[in-house]
Specification:
mainly beta
Length: 56
């Protein structure tokens, strides 16, 4: 897979993060690096994103 960088915006938060580019038509996944960069965690029970504490 190729590796690159992309600017993402989720729930009003923005960050530049690394991405792995897969074949066209592949289901996109939001990874740990992106979530950590915008201080969001996953609530698997309610299938939502939650703010987490951290330092920029």
């Amino acid at each position: 897979m190729d590796i690159g960088q992309i600017w993402i915006r989720i729930e009003g938060r923005e960050v530049i993060t690394q991405v792995m580019l897969n074949d066209e038509g592949t289901e996109p996944l939001l990874g740990a690096m992106a979530l950590d960069g915008i201080f969001l965690g996953v609530d698997p029970v309610n299938q939502t994103l939650l703010p987490i504490r951290g330092r920029p």
